[in-house]
Design a protein that fits this description.
Blueprint (H helix, E strand, L loop, with lengths): L2 H6 L3 H6 L20 E2 L6 E3 L19 H21 L1 H12 L7 H16 L4 H30 L1 H6 L1 H32 L7 H12 L8 H30 L9 H35 L5 H8 L1 H6 L2 H25 L14 E5 L6
Antiparallel strand pairs: 1-2, 2-3
Helix pairs in contact: 3-6, 3-14, 4-5, 6-8, 8-9, 8-10, 10-11, 11-14
Length: about 375
């Protein structure tokens, strides 16, 4: 298959999103018509189609898959997904960050909430919500929008057959590529958020916290935690997307008693939330040591990663604040996939994931040449 042809077609997502009995909406070029069949195996081989149309489930919306409108919708869905959920769990994040920085004072989840409430009242539990909202909205835009882009891009590069065979590697590569850029967008707001939440009296929020860091350390001060942020978020996002895709596929295959295209949108969104929650548990475990490092480095001036590891110790690095983070990230990830897919359904796009099918084959034998 020529490279330029493969870029216009869909490889991996065609068998993830294909629905039954679809008739392509006009104009046909928006969804790419089927190409001429190709022949495998010479005489007597099977006739195989090399193109698949990817429909939107709501034809009245007519957003073509992998069009600029599609990527714009995924970007907006990512903004809503990550921005709203991270802001909603700010109290949990406050307790988690303070448990990582001062475990003697914040000994447990319950006592941590009690200390924060006693010292700052209800408002204190939401300290840092503005940089959280801005930072994670920017991250979500890149995370989800670029994941959809890179997933298709790598699928097209691999070719239809390899994209199906190595689909998990496609998910991992696409999510890692997307998160690399997403963390660059997130890092400045994360630096402000952590210091506002864990350094009493440092700043009230974004408006005074951001200029305070830049005056003292310059713009590089906002990116001191970028490397550990990559170390936390890239494995987290790889697990988040690959585990979600595999979990949703397994749920439709082994748990849900009917095919995805026969499920209602409410049922499909329930699967998205469940798959996201399960993925979130694994995300929290994989990324937790780096999360501890991010909190330590953003709270301790001029500290290095080696000093942070030595100061915390290996056990604390992997376990301090982990139970709370599992609850927080599981809920967060489930809600994110639910919001993201709800927005996709709202604009007329299919929900994410589903039963993966090998490229379709027509078993009609080729006619033998006449004598």
């Amino acid at each position: 298959m020529a490279l330029e042809d493969s870029r216009r077609s869909s490889a991996l997502p065609s068998f993830l999103y294909k629905s039954k009995g679809f008739k392509a909406p006009a104009p046909a070029p928006a969804l790419v018509p089927a190409a001429e069949p190709r022949i495998n195996g010479g005489g007597g081989g099977a006739l195989q189609s090399s193109r698949f149309l990817i429909p939107s489930p709501d034809e009245s919306k007519k957003i073509a898959m992998y069009s600029p409108e599609f990527y714009a919708a995924c970007t907006v869905g990512g903004i809503l997904s990550c921005g709203l959920t991270h802001t909603a769990v700010t109290p949990l994040d406050m307790v988690k960050c303070n448990m990582q920085i001062d475990p003697a004072k914040y000994r447990s989840i319950g006592s941590g909430f009690g200390v924060l409430y006693k010292e700052a009242g209800p408002k204190g539990l939401f300290k840092g919500w503005v940089p959280t909202l801005f930072g994670y909205s920017a991250q979500g835009a890149f995370k989800f929008g670029l994941y959809e882009f890179f997933k298709k891009y790598y699928s097209d590069l691999a070719g239809e057959e390899n994209a199906y065979k190595y689909k998990t590697f496609i998910y991992l590569a696409g999510s890692a590529s997307a998160e690399f850029f997403a963390d660059i967008a997130l890092c400045p707001m994360e630096a402000v958020k952590v210091r506002v939440q864990t350094k009493p009296g440092f700043a009230n929020g974004l408006l005074d916290g951001l200029p305070k860091i830049t005056r003292a350390e310059g713009v590089p001060g906002l990116y001191r935690g970028l490397v550990p942020l990559w170390g936390r978020q890239i494995p987290y996002t790889m697990m988040k997307f690959a585990c979600f895709e595999a979990t949703v596929e397994a749920l439709y295959k082994y748990v849900i008693p009917k095919p995805k295209d026969e499920c209602s949108k409410v049922e499909q969104l329930g699967v998205s939330f469940g798959g996201g929650y399960i993925a979130g548990i694994f995300c929290a475990i994989v990324s937790h040591p780096a999360d501890n490092l991010v909190s330590f480095l953003n709270n301790t001036k001029d500290a290095t990663i080696g000093q942070a590891v030595k100061s915390m110790g290996p056990v604390a690095l992997f376990t301090r604040g982990l139970p709370l983070r599992i609850v927080m990230i599981g809920t967060l990830t489930g809600a994110q996939w639910g919001i993201y897919d709800a927005f996709k359904v709202f604009v007329g796009l299919p929900t994410s994931g589903g039963v993966s099918k090998a490229p379709e084959q027509l078993t009609t034998p080729l006619p033998l040449p006449s004598a």
